[in-house]
């Protein structure tokens, strides 16, 4: 071994834990040496029967770790130590330690669940909590439980809380304290002003750090774009002995090596993404400039896939970044935020499984054949359900089970959308798949994706193209074409529709370019966009607004081509629905692709029961408007129900909740607002009661009162007492106050002109008292009508004296 490292102090404890338990969780800070020591120590201990596989989160870290391990053995990568990643493999028959990127392990387990020939799996840098690492650990635990109890398992992390991982793995925790030198933190005096550009502020802080310190400077920036812009702003601002070296994943490997290696003279300033947080060792670094941002994989509703989203750095990430300055000597860590802002940072970055697109995970779970995997953080059920809906539309799942097509998609290192397009469309779909998986090569151009396709084939001037992105797209297209089957070439819009069956967009009526997508969401584009007048589009990217997203990339598609692609999912639907705008039930026959209506005609002879069901929605919206008779009936029922709770509740709320039960059979012929307003619900309300209940209501709260003339007048029950209203002459001869079911009636007497003249609860008392004054007043007004002195002795009448 080379010079001693802090990890060496706990290596005996770690090896003993593996001998005793077959597993361990190693917690060690950056620079402790876990990546370069542990695999070789396991190999030397002779406790692993088979190959040792170590996972790294990034390609650069995997390659660098393998080369460093091989160097310690006096070899080159590909002998005892090799590596494997997407598109590049360097192993041999002599390889005993294989460093792989995280997705490789999933493919190994899916193709060989027993992991034949593998004796140990090491998860390095597990604190990054990538989706592939979480899935790989869950699969490995299940394999170890069911098939390979002899499989050695180790999880290594720098900043993660080791307790939950140790509990999940059922393993002891071994902790190395490391040997970091003191790092002095330097914050901004005050928060950045909002009008200061990020790249300008970052360049200023780098220039300050170079002026105030000695040694190499490692600058953390979120992505390639920011690195390029900061590099441009630093041009001419640094001393002549300073060399600027970018470091990001898409950079050619030779340039990555140059950023990592020592410089022969002068100083180097490495402008790096979070790739430099990992087990990667960057020589000569004494100063860190942390610009406070990190790029993480998050589900992007705009593209329907995961995208890298720029977010605020967490305390754990900031700690790990600062630690890079103290690996070889005391260092300094500059931070592009104030000390006051430091306390507001989140503790840890969220696990990718909590926020990323889970479509790929759903495919892997279906291939594996179960949902009960032991995840450290279970996948959100809602996101998993949405992913399965998409996979069913792509033909990867049927009734929740993986299909042959789904297994083919799982084998491709692509999002299932793009994998489906490649498997179905063949080699000719590879350029579009590559375009959709990389950053936009024509940023700022109109939304028409065909412009990007032309740029890829060289039909647009190079000055309009992002050259780095274009080179990566071309390289990726060549790689994907090798994985795709042969198939007849088709237009690009057909390939796009294959990948985005939920993003076929139909223009809404009106002057504005607004669209409804087959998946149900709304979208719009600028009226000046060249595609704004198109009826049908395939949308491949939006700004993700959940209310109505702006279309950022799309292809126009003809209806014939759309039907060729989506023909089996186009359905003819007859529907009756309440239209608030029209105020009536609309019966339509529609041809639909998901949420979009390709045609819409009247449904002739629509069944009456379907119209009635739709009318119920109209009733819910319009509310009740009962006739006077219906209101009286409800009041009668309520009065009896007060003493007999077995009667049904006829309040507005209760009736609205049970519309289907009582109103539906009586809605035939009612299908508009006007008809509902004229509808009499009395018959439907009466039908709610059984025969016995109706008898009780009629007995205890009768609907009518029979006057002395034998005429029936309705009894009102809306007040605190039942009441009747009738002409005073009709009650002549009454010597006892009228009652119903033992309750006195409130009687309102009317004049011959139908105006109220007296309300009483005691008719005999009224005759004996107030009637005298009423008679005096009424005789003059209505001389043709009888006004006897003693009404108790007069006959009831509604007649008037004949005119002379």
Automatic annotation (TrEMBL):
Q: Which UniProt keywords apply?
A: ATP-binding, Helicase, Hydrolase, Nucleotide-binding
Q: What is any Pfam family matched here?
A: DEAD
Q: Which GO-annotated molecular functions does the record name?
A: ATP binding; hydrolase activity; nucleic acid binding; RNA helicase activity
Entry annotated with the keyword Secreted: no
Q: What is its EC number?
A: 3.6.4.13
InterPro entries per record: DEAD/DEAH_box_helicase_dom, Helicase-assoc_dom, Helicase_ATP-bd, Helicase_C-like, HrpB, HrpB_DEXH, P-loop_NTPase, RNA_helicase_ATP-dep_HrpB_C
| Gene3D superfamilies the UniProt entry points to | 1.20.120.1080, P-loop containing nucleotide triphosphate hydrolases
Q: Which PANTHER family match?
A: ATP-DEPENDENT RNA HELICASE HRPB
UniProt-recorded name of the protein: ATP-dependent RNA helicase HrpB
